[in-house]
Amino acid sequence: MTPADLSRTVLHAVHRAVDENALRAPVPARVRVERTRPGGSGDYACAVALQLAGSAGMPALEVARILRERVAAEPGIGRVEITGPGFLSFTLDSPGDSDRAVLDAVREQGSAYGHGGALRDEVLQFHHAREVRAAVTADAVRRLVISQGARVRIRCEEASDPEWGLLGVTVDAYGTPPATPSAPLTPIRPVPAGATAGELLERLGADATRWGLLRPASHDRAPLGDELLVQGEANPLFRVRYAHARATALTRGAAALGFTSESDAAPAPYEGPARPLLDLLADHPRVLLAAARHRAPDRVARQLEAVAHAFFDFHDCCSPLPSGDEKPSAAHRSRLALAEAAGTVLAGGLSLLGISAPAHL
Question: pLDDT at position 93, please?
């Protein structure tokens, strides 16, 4: 990790703290990190907590504690200490350790990678109109907040459309109850789809309908044309699902050649075209939490598109499978580990959107 990487990591932690309402302060344009002076602790240090303390209305030591918790969880960071009035001191991991930690976490957690307990103390109530986009958005938001530990109940203002069940939507109750301090009432009000569930299902099917309704931000109109059914690169849904299918095909191909993936097969960290993909996978938990907090499933869809794009760039440049008479090597096993992790993240993200991830397309 370079000083520029570390600066971005700390800035990322500030963004997270603000997104999670743990810190109320303007996010600086950049964070300066410097080599620790002789006799100091760690490899690098920064004074961002002192910089933010005034605008946050908090002691610098408390700001530092908030940021330490978030920086310490980032790949590449071995240890974070607070020194003096609120300086953060960083000791970096050895090269490759953080990369393997990300891949190991995806392998161990599977499609639940990125799920957590940040919202475990929240009891939520969502309500929406009897309209298909509102119903599908509320369902996706429910999946997201549950993935972060919240308890949630959904109400529709009127009896639900029976066709919603074919889209995987369930409603817990009807009508609009009064909000309570322990469970405030949150409306889900995206721009209406302009069509019924039955009309969309007949023309697009369940998966394309859900993607078409969820991919745009809720304040934008949802494009629901036949482009959602195109089997080609121009269709982001196809590209995401094809990336997942290709990742599973690589696992099958490797098995046929008699080898499996190993995240620690390569002695050096992943670089070149692998780096953007690995960085996206490392960022996935933050994206899911932000999407849950902001009730924004479109953020997950955009993350999956970015992962699919990075996957194909990596795949086309660094194939995980040997060619011709080439023997499987440590590099092939480490590339396969990255490809499998990408497939796992894509499947998990699609599941949170209520969309299937077929192994064959």
Answer: 73
